[in-house]
Amino acid sequence: MIAIYKAIDPDSKVDSVNRLFSPHDGTYGSFFTQKLYIRNSDESKVYTNIRLQIVLNNGDIYNVSENNNVYQLFPGDIEPTAAEWQIIPHCNIINLENIYNNSSYVPFFLRVYSPGGQNTSSRLSDAVIRIEALEDTP
After folding, report:
1. What's this model's pTM, rounded to 2 decimal places?
2. Are 41 and 97 in contact (CB under 8 A)?
């Protein structure tokens, strides 16, 4: 099974207990960027055509004009510059490399912008990172 991890550590899997948290300035608004990883924890499976996208908890496409937070994803091991982030569409879809074994951690970045004047406790409660991939046996 593939899942998201906060670090190159099998114990850092993101789940209902070890959730993603995005601290923000509730008065002025702020950006928060975190490097995350996709990993396959099942030796009997390989995953190809991996795609990630930010969606609402109910699975609907996240519409920035209807929601306050802005989410962006970026594949790779090197964090984008501020100029690079500016040209990445909000709630974009990214493609990641195939995962053939359970020791590979494929890096990507999540960036969240939360405008000021919001309740900071609800910042990441309305969206999830959807993982789509083809599953096969080696």
Report:
1. 0.87
2. no
In the CATH scheme, what is the code of domain 2-136? Answer: 2.60.40
Classify residue 56 by burial, with Cβ atoms within 10 Å: 0-12, 13-18, 19+.
Answer: middle
pLDDT, residue 122, reads: 46
Which residue, chain included where needed, has tokens 């190809």?
48
Domain extents for the chain? Answer: 2-136
Which DSSP helix (H) or strand (E) runs through 84?
helix 82-87
The β-bridge partners of 36 are 108
Give the three-class secondary structure for 3. Answer: strand
Calpha distance 19→51 (Å, rounded): 20
